[in-house]
Predict the 3D structure of the following.
Amino acid sequence: MSSIHDIKEESLQLLKDADNLEKLEKLRVEILGKKGLLADLMKQMRDLDKDERPVFGQKVNDLKQELEKIIREKISSFIESEMLKKLSEEKIDITLPGASLKHGNKHPLTLMSDAILELYTSMGYTVVKGPEIELDKYNFERANIPENHPAREMQDTFFVDVERLLRTHTTAIQTRVLESESNNLPIKVICPGKTYRRDDDDATHSHQFIQIEGLLIDENIKMTDLKGTLEVMATHLFGDDQKIRLRPSYFQFTEPSVEVDLVCFNCKGEGCSVCKQTGWIELLGAGMVHPKVLEMAGIDSLRYSGFAFGLGVDRAVMLKYGVKDIRSLYTNDVRLLDMFDRFD
Ligand code: PHE
């Protein structure tokens, strides 16, 4: 039969060797559990004299408390060292630079549209939009391009059905505004929007592009007002020394009509491959709104006159930033888009 002393020595030795929480828990059951070493000791109580029992019981109890204390201390020291180990392993180096967030930037077409809209709204123009699926009536007829007129050929078109098409120019917004505001003159609007033509896609043509239409109708509006307005835009967008040229042209909805060129950004007018040796690059179509267009909208063309222009935003982006292929504005190659981080 083992003595209290032996059990104590044995337990202490066992506990001493326990080097992790798991082993310790196992030992705790082996020593203090219902079928443990101390429980065995207590069984000896039966064989003792009555007066020896309390003394023995007291001794076993003391041993039990002593062992419990050792186990508790060991448990907390294990927990502590485990935590310290974890802390040292998971150390955070707060001096490391943080993971940088990639922020987006505006698409060049948006940058250019915003710049143009901001300029015109600062001059008192109101921004107006229109539907991309447009009625033949507003896209062609009200622009003085009747059915079967050969001028339609130039804008060979995506028809949705016999009456509706993907608008070929923002002039469709112009004819809508002329109608809706015919009793609310003067009119001063700037109309951005996507436009569509069945074009063979190449470096300077895309079946989808963006236009901005400007329209001003009031009494006494002259060609010089148009020219001055376009000069302000050209210098605002392309720099103070940017020159423009008005070249006679033909549109069914303006009379007279002009095409407006910028001095070539590349050769400054000397002539180069970018401007096909002319020194000029076309930016937009414009003119004085045709009296017939005003009358069709219900506006008195003897009293009122005005100008309109339609600018290709894609073309303006290509000129300003030297983008060589219009298609790269739509294929969204991030290497190109990232470059526009610097502009805004
Ligand atoms: N709508 C014409 C085009 O798309 C541009 C234009 C607009 C010309 C307004 C004159 C006046 O080519």
About this structure: The CA atoms of residues 189 and 224 lie 18 Å apart. The chain has a mean pLDDT of 91.
